[in-house]
Amino acid sequence: KQWYQRRVRGIEFEVKLGYSDVLFRPKRSTLASRSDVTLEREIRFRNSGLKYRGVPVMASNMDTTGTFGIARAFSSHQMFVCIHKHYSVQQWVEFAANNPQSIEHVAVSSGSSARDLDKLRDILAQVPANFICLDVANGYSEHFVEFVKKVRESYPNKTIIAGNVVTGEMVEELILAGADIVKVGIGPGSVCTTRMKTGVGYPQLSAVLECADAAHGLGGHIVADGGCTCPGDVAKAFGAGADFVMLGGMFAGHDEGDGEIIEKEGRKYVKFYGMSSSTAMEKHSGGVANYRTSEGKTVLLPYKGSIEDTIQDILGGVRSCCTYVGAVKLKELPKRTTFVRTTKQLNEIYGKKSINKTD
After folding, report:
1. Per the residue annotation, which of 65, 159, 194, 279 is the catalytic one?
2. Active site residue 211
3. What is the reported pTM?
4. Taking a C-beta distance cutoff of 8 angstroms, is the pair 53, 77 a contact?
């Protein structure tokens, strides 16, 4: 009967988990202080052969987080930004000329159309960026795999980030097609409605665990993209084996994101939206095409000011996690990680509000 259910009905009965389903089990530690933890990693990529050194926290290539302003703020922390694809070639040239220290920590983003590829080539002909981010909502199409191969043939010495997918076999296929880092996540983002509109997705912690295992078996890497709501979730993604963690909503609402600021009842808010939302498609494509639906939502976030406090909050949380499990370096965190299942992660008797904005 069990065989019948698994094979005929096509159901996987193994429980898959998200970040809120687990906590770290603390372990004996020799660390005396959070300042003893090293978050920098040095990574050599499988296909490009390039080496990267930095803190592997990424800002998503959304048009209010993957901005040049955030790249400038991140460079002093050696953090990474996948720049959104809507900047012009001239804007890229000016940014590279004025911010040479930021170029090693950014990726040029592209979709998979011929027009996207032409623009990517124009940018890379004038900007010395080493990273390319090939970003589509559905990384399972044969067209996308062939596109990754084409970009790899054109740029054998560039590090390619490609996705999104959520299963090990597709991670392997993209790595073998030429990707160095595979983006993992379908539907977990704070302004993504793909799971609601399509019924497609995979709980993010399980996706990261399984995809990291597949990538590392081939000498590749992954970035956990989406689903983090707090610094503890970022730590869990690293603990599950992610080489990079990409954040959108946690980096939204700041000055450096260039988002639209709206005042309501004497308070400031910043408009934040998914890149498959009707807001984004009206802004960049003239509207929602008649063959598709919006798969993102638009929200107003409280205006957060400078992004520096948020950076310190996230990095401080990850450092603290490492001290609890005895990981001297971020690279050691997966080896020191044991997750325990939980039915309740937080005590919310006083709600989620605090008089301090980063608490």
Report:
1. 194
2. no
3. 0.93
4. no
